[in-house]
Design a protein that fits this description.
Largest sheet of chain B: 7 strands, antiparallel
Number of helices of chain A: 12
Distance between the termini of chain A: 46 Å
Helix content of chain A: 25-40%
Order of helices and strands of chain A: HHEEEHEEHHHHHEEEHEEHHEEEEEH
CATH class of the domain at 106-238 in chain B: Alpha Beta
Radius of gyration of chain A: 22 Å
Strand order of the largest sheet of chain B: 3-2-16-15-14-13-12
Distance between the termini of chain B: 17 Å
Number of helices of chain B: 13
Strand order of the largest sheet of chain A: 2-1-15-14-13-12-11
Shape of chain A: globular
Number of strands of chain B: 17
Strand content of chain A: 5-15%
Strand content of chain B: 15-25%
Shape of chain B: globular
Structural class of chain B: alpha+beta
Helix content of chain B: 25-40%
Largest interface: A-B, 58 and 52 residues
CATH superfamily of the domain at 106-238 in chain B: DD-peptidase/beta-lactamase superfamily
CATH topology of the domain at 106-238 in chain B: Beta-lactamase
Number of strands of chain A: 15
Structural class of chain A: alpha+beta
Oligomer: heterodimer
Chain lengths: ~425, ~450
């Protein structure tokens, strides 16, 4: 390398040095074979410059057995990933809000079978346009949409076309900005209640209970929680779940004092010309208001029960610990096992037998079930309605975060990075390594 | 056949030595005669690599062909122009080769320089006076004080993306200025090329002319210069000097209606338009679906454009593009017809901005900046051994197309598929396999 190259060369050398420091910090414990196996699986994403960094936490028998960080959580701010870094967890909000709903059910303030119209009267006037295709003539509702339907994505609602929606109606969601991801930072429509007001103007894309369509259902649930309790969603979720579980770093809006712990959001960087060898494939996410490196900083978003939370791996592990531990927090029962265990039972209607999550997630998702906020991975040839034939439970967020609960092996894990949309999912492999 | 074993370093001292280098370039024949062939088993690894992607459903199809001394040394075509369709991808399948038009337009500019119509150091303002006093927003940042451009933008700058122009953000444009390109619709097909230049002249440059490589609309501007000095539409001129005589019958700024059945569709991984949690083990991460690049559906592609975009508007086929590449690799001549003088052809392979160091390429090429130089419309990838010899000359297009001319023995190759946004950066890997397959006595 000639002198001409020395300037940038030293920058590369410096980056290399930082990586080495992260990998071999003096106070790090001896790296276990399991951690090495995870590093071997995940490090190529850093080496190939697909993402700037990641954090992985794995617990076995209640003890943390993997605490693995690589690269950066915010390159510009030189923030290193750790279990205390705040990440936008997007749809990993859904299990938390589902649990808050079950708490209200336990308290007798809500029934899963309640029609949504009991809380949001406009739900009685909904029409259905089959397949969400505007060429099809609209139908009357064959039955009311229930809370259960909302929690299981079988209400007939969909998502905006720039999320998972694929129907013509989903294009209308997108055009209006209904429950959009970018709206979390800058909402075109206003508050949660305002989004609902627009949503109820639009037809459903299927009759309730007919098809699993990943949807804004949990956002509607969020509004129901507000109406039932008379409190804003952030307060409700905090009172019902976050505070009892001591999840003190989980927020809809990141407090000023915690900003320095917030990761930055990244998205794919696309070169339209060939670049020899390895090059940076990510760049800061472009759609956030200036000066905001991630979601969770804005005052002009909406409170989203489907995707609004920012959390840490340490916090989220507390939630998974409770789920793995018979829903006990210490000596206390957080929620009765009878109600809590609904999370580990398939809740999809019998009519969907064998169809699983295929509509949104392709043919291989036929062996995937769904409870309230949790996906259920089946053993090969397993029966969705027999819990002992479930392989593991999981869900994930749009920015490439994910978790799993492996009850049989008493393992759970949380993977954090910030890449919107998800491109690098290694959950299936991560589950195997801890076994 | 002449080899291109050109020592780029020896050509780093300006215009005068450039001619000397050109002569050295075309007279270096050593390696070409030493090459005795290619290990076909090694070349077959290219097919293994691409079949792996194809069979997992990650690319809809592929076309790859490599030629040397006028003969195919390797070719492989797989898949159909449409997933589930009946028209197989073949040497005459039409792809949107996008930025691979840039080297072609650059060749036309070099030809006009050879003809004495243009000069390499001509300022852009000689042809379009609105560019005679530009302001610069360094790194495209509108929050720092502007500078006055210290030098005029020259044709040399336009050929090497050192004009200070940039692109809109979706083509990796730089800073706030890139957003101005998007907002004003610079080089959109809404208005004529001349009207686009009016818009462009109102926006600050992102760097001082000549200071750094910023991938840009520069080649569209070169297209406008060609139209101005020839009085012809760009496509008509290119047809006259290259496409027609070379027999590149499917290379143009639109797809002829009768050829449309051979025009491949565009695909993208579903996950990209689908920011959803992924289901472990599902196909969603890579499962490809038909897509509409820049929001334009398939039927909107290949139509006659408002203006001929030299930077991104060309459609071509593997067999067509190879003719162009062979002509340039062969010193400006093919099958007994001369298109460019040997000296002009050699300029494609010369470092036209020798004073630029690694930092000038860092934004555009990342770590590969240490191996990058830029010639007459061609990227120059240097050998990684520090010898400063060219490994290969190349460029590619936005829908995952790529061509190269080898720096050691002048073999030429293309790799086409239709993935948008581009995802598989296979070019370096494929060229490396060709290098490894080469048998030198």
């Amino acid at each position: 390398m000639s002198n001409r190259y020395s300037l940038l060369g030293s920058v590369f050398a410096l980056l290399l040095l930082v990586h080495v420091q992260v990998a071999t910090a003096e106070d790090a414990p001896v790296v276990s074979p399991m951690t090495q196996a995870y590093a071997q699986l995940l490090d190529p994403m850093i080496d190939e410059q697909l993402i700037p960094g990641y954090y992985l936490s794995v617990y076995k028998n209640g003890q943390q057995v993997v605490d693995l960080a690589r690269g950066f959580a915010d390159e510009e701010a030189s923030l290193l990933p750790s279990q205390d870094v705040l990440y936008f967890i997007a749809s990993m909000t859904k299990p938390i809000v589902s649990l808050a709903t079950l708490k209200l059910v336990e308290q007798g303030r809500l029934n899963l079978a309640d029609p949504v119209k009991k809380f949001i009267p406009e739900f009685s006037n909904l029409l259905v346009v089959p397949d969400g295709d505007l060429d099809n003539s609209s139908e009357e509702l064959l039955r009311d949409v229930t809370i259960h339907d909302l929690l299981t994505h079988t209400s007939g609602l969909t998502y905006s076309q720039d999320i998972t929606g694929r129907e013509e109606i989903a294009k209308v969601y997108a055009d209006l900005g209904i429950f959009s991801i970018d709206g979390l930072a800058e909402s075109k429509l206003g508050s949660l209640a305002d989004h609902i007001e627009q949503l109820v103007q639009l037809p459903l894309v299927f009759q309730p209970g007919e098809v699993f369509v990943y949807s804004v259902g949990i956002d509607v649930v969020g509004r129901v929680l507000e109406i039932v309790t008379g409190k804003p969603l952030d307060v409700v979720v905090n009172e019902l779940v976050l505070a009892p579980l001591d999840m003190t770093d989980t927020h809809f809006k990141v407090p000023e004092a915690k900003r320095t712990r917030l990761a930055a959001m990244y998205s794919p960087r696309v070169a339209t010309y060939p670049i020899p060898g390895v090059y940076r494939r990510y760049q800061p996410y472009q759609n956030l208001p200036k000066g905001q490196p991630n979601f969770g900083l804005s005052d002009s978003g909406y409170l989203s029960g489907g995707a609004g939370l920012v959390s840490t791996a340490r916090d989220y592990a507390k939630l998974l610990a409770v789920m793995s531990n018979g829903f006990r927090v210490g000596q206390q029962q957080f929620i009765s096992a009878q109600i809590g265990n609904k999370l580990f039972q398939n809740q999809l209607p019998a009519a969907l037998q064998g169809k699983g999550l295929v509509y949104n997630f392709g043919p291989s998702a036929s062996s995937t079930g769904f409870s309230y906020g949790l996906g259920i991975r089946l053993l090969a040839g397993g029966d969705l309605n027999r819990s002992d034939e479930h392989d593991y439970y999981f869900w994930a967020g749009a920015a490439n975060t994910g978790f799993w609960i492996d009850l049989k092996n008493d393992v759970y894990g949380i993977f954090m990075t910030q890449h919107l949309p998800t491109q690098y999912d290694r959950t299936a492999e991560m589950v195997e390594i801890a076994r | 056949m002449n080899s291109r074993n050109l020592n780029v370093a020896s050509c780093w001292s300006g215009i005068r030595t450039l001619i000397v280098c050109a002569l050295i370039g075309v007279s270096t024949q050593s390696l070409a005669t030493e090459t005795v062939g290619y290990d076909q088993a090694k070349l077959a690894e290219i097919k293994v690599l691409l079949d792996g992607l194809y069979e997992k459903g990650q690319i809809p199809n592929y076309a790859v062909e490599i030629r040397k001394d006028g003969e195919a040394i390797f070719s492989a075509y797989r898949g159909n122009t449409k997933l589930g369709g009946a028209v197989a991808v073949a040497p005459d399948t039409i792809f949107w080769v996008a930025s691979m038009g840039k080297p072609i337009v650059s060749s036309a500019v070099l030809k006009l320089i050879e003809d004495g119509v243009l000069g390499l150091e001509d300022p852009l303002s000689k042809y379009f006076p609105q560019f005679d006093s530009m302001v610069v927003a360094p790194m495209g940042d509108l929050d720092v004080p502007f500078e006055i451009a210290k030098k005029p933008i020259t044709i040399r700058n336009l050929l090497t993306h050192t004009s200070g122009f940039t692109y809109s953000p979706e083509v990796l444009g730089l800073g706030d200025v890139a957003y101005q390109y998007a907002e004003l619709g610079v080089m959109s097909q809404q208005v004529s090329l001349e009207e686009n230049l009016e818009l462009l002249a109102q926006i600050p440059l992102v760097a001082q002319p000549g200071d750094s490589f910023n991938y840009s609309v520069s080649v569209d501007v070169l297209g406008a210069i060609i139209e101005k000095v020839t009085g012809q539409r760009l496509g008509v001129y290119l047809d006259e000097v290259f496409f027609k005589p070379l027999g590149m019958n499917d290379t143009a700024f639109s797809v002829r209606p009768e050829a449309r059945k051979r025009f491949a569709r565009f695909y993208q991984p579903e996950s990209l338009r689908n920011p959803a949690p992924s289901i472990p083990g599902s196909e969603i991460e890579w499962h490809i679906v038909e897509t509409a690049p820049f929001g334009r559906p398939y039927d909107g592609w290949g139509q006659v454009p408002t203006f001929d975009s030299g930077g991104g508007g060309i459609y071509s086929t593997a067999q067509d593009f190879l003719k162009y590449a062979e002509m340039v690799a062969n010193g400006g001549e093919l099958n007994g017809v001369r298109y460019l003088s040997a000296e002009t052809a050699a300029i494609h392979f010369q470092d036209l901005m020798p004073e630029l160091g690694l930092e000038a390429f860092a934004v555009a090429f990342g770590e590969a900046a240490q191996y990058m130089k830029f010639g007459g419309g061609f990227g120059i990838k240097l050998q990684e051994d520090g010898s400063e010899k060219a490994d290969y000359y190349f460029w590619g297009g936005a829908a995952n197309t790529f061509f190269w001319i080898d720096g050691q023995d002048g073999n030429v190759g293309v790799f086409f598929t239709h993935i948008w946004p581009p995802r598989y950066n296979l070019s370096d890997q494929i060229e490396q396999l060709v290098d490894e397959a080469r048998i030198i006595k």
